[in-house]
Specification:
Blueprint: H1 4-8, H2 11-19, H3 27-63, H4 69-101, E1 121-126, H5 139-145, E2 149-150, H6 151-157, E3 164-165, H7 167-186, E4 191-192, E5 198-199, H8 201-207, E6 219-220, E7 226-228, H9 233-238, E8 244-246, E9 252-261, E10 280-290, H10 295-312, E11 317-321, E12 333-341, E13 346-357, H11 359-364, E14 367-369, E15 377-378, E16 380-388, H12 389-399, E17 407-408, E18 422-423
Helix pairs in contact: 3-4, 7-12
Length: 429
């Protein structure tokens, strides 16, 4: 949620910032709701003061032996007026709150202008895409040919955009997950956490998925509405809801492995083949909470932690700075890591590393104190995939394949796979 100071300041300036991301701010509606809220607040304060003054006159009249009925009638009338203004205040505040919850974050000044992913700016590349001396197969062909990846059977028990893995591919997914967690905990200093995979509306609202992106969520019908998590970002960041941390406890760095569930309502017709865009997938998520003056540095650091996984796996990738028009609603700045996929002959997103500044922490009231007795201040929140497990599996299959449909195991993964150097060897097919 945006700082209320921005709402009560120059709305044309705020509208200009949000226009960078192709969001049209309804200045008139916002101004009207704020004016109505403010006028009701002033009226309430005036009526309350007047009612207090008149109420004192009741006791004074009684002490003089006078009939206080007229004064009591005036008190009652003032009470009715006060209640009416309170209703107007609550109504305007509620409408204003809903409007504010739907506003996206202000893009950071370092975010490039642009309308879509075509306008994203490449920052750097790592590694060189391999030149194959054989025909390149995509991950679907490789996995299905080995009998270890099945989309048809998954669709019969669920629907499209699900997959069933078995044997060495199921082991590879588990190995990747464990490898990522070990690196982030042991080398990057994150604390591993375990969280619910179902969350309520308040949790989703706290990180910005609601109310704006409800159509992308899977909702569970129960007495109390629960949702399958779209990303571990939601429950992990919510661990800090309503907390006030001492400065000595910062930064908070957490890593978590969870399944993720997305309806992909806005991606109809995109990536219908394979594991790139699934309703269910797994991620290892990185979350940090830091003082505001450290968030830019933390963003670079978190991004490097995700990059380290790709480098250890020897997967070529590039880093792009998302333009304002391609930013997620809650993000102030995002770096996307895009891994090279030979089966598609292009770079595809495998991690988004974002700095939300105080947008989420204001909703969550995640705060810290500089010193004992000091006024609590809002933290800055950041997160990024470190990495998306399924897309990493896809990248490994396609980048390390050979002419026989076998897949070489990167050195760092071999201890997690019982020392295997090759997957889907001909003798096991």
């Amino acid at each position: 949620m945006l700082d209320p100071k921005l709402i009560r300041g120059d709305l044309s300036d705020l509208a200009g910032h949000l226009a960078r991301r192709q969001f049209v701010l309804d200045v008139d509606q916002l101004s009207s709701l704020e004016a109505s809220r403010k006028s009701a607040q002033v009226a309430m304060e005036t009526l309350q003061a007047e009612r207090n003054r008149v109420s004192k006159a009741v006791g004074q009249a009684k002490s003089r032996g006078e009939d206080p009925s007229e004064i009591l009638e005036a008190v009652s009338e003032l009470g009715q007026q006060l209640e009416a203004e309170k209703h107007r205040f609550d109504e305007a505040s509620s409408d204003l709150q809903q409007l504010l919850l739907g506003l996206p974050n202000v893009p950071d000044e370092s975010v490039p202008d642009g309308h879509s992913e075509e306008d994203n700016v490449e920052i750097r590349r790592w590694g060189t895409p391999r030149q194959f001396d054989c025909e390149v197969a995509d991950h679907v062909t490789l996995g299905e040919s080995a009998g270890l990846m099945n989309f048809d059977v998954a669709s019969t028990m669920a629907q499209s955009r699900f997959v069933a893995l078995r044997g060495e591919l199921a082991q590879l997914q588990r190995a990747l997950t464990q490898f990522m967690l070990d690196v982030h905990v042991n080398e990057h200093g994150y604390e591993e956490v375990y969280v619910p995979f179902l969350v309520n509306e308040e949790a989703l609202q706290g990180t910005g998925q609601l109310p704006k992106f409800g159509e992308d969520l899977f909702r569970v019908a129960m007495d109390r509405a629960l949702y399958l998590i779209p990303t571990a970002e939601v429950p992990v960041t919510n661990l800090m809801r309503d907390k006030i941390l001492p400065l000595d406890d910062l930064p908070v760095k957490m890593v978590c492995h969870t399944p993720c569930f997305r309806s992909e309502a806005g991606s109809y017709g995109r990536d219908t083949r394979g594991m790139i865009r699934q309703h269910q997938f797994e991620k290892v998520e990185l979350v940090q909470l830091v003082p505001p003056e450290q968030s830019d540095e933390a963003h670079e650091s978190l991004t490097s932690h995700a990059e380290a996984i790709l480098q250890k796996l020897e997967l070529p990738y590039r880093v792009v700075n998302l333009c304002a028009g391609d930013l997620g609603a809650s993000s102030s700045k995002t770096y996307d890591l895009e891994v090279w996929l030979p089966g598609q002959s292009q770079y595809r997103e495998i991690s988004s590393c974002s700095n939300f500044k105080d947008f989420q922490s204001r909703r969550l009231q995640a705060r810290y104190r500089l010193e004992q007795g000091a006024k609590p201040e809002l933290l800055h929140t950041l997160n990024g995939s470190g990495l998306a497990v399924g897309r990493t599996l896809v990248a490994l299959l396609e980048n390390f394949q050979d002419a026989q449909g076998q897949v070489l195991v990167p050195d760092v993964l071999r201890p997690y796979l019982g020392g295997k150097t090759v997957l889907m060897a001909q003798s096991t097919q």
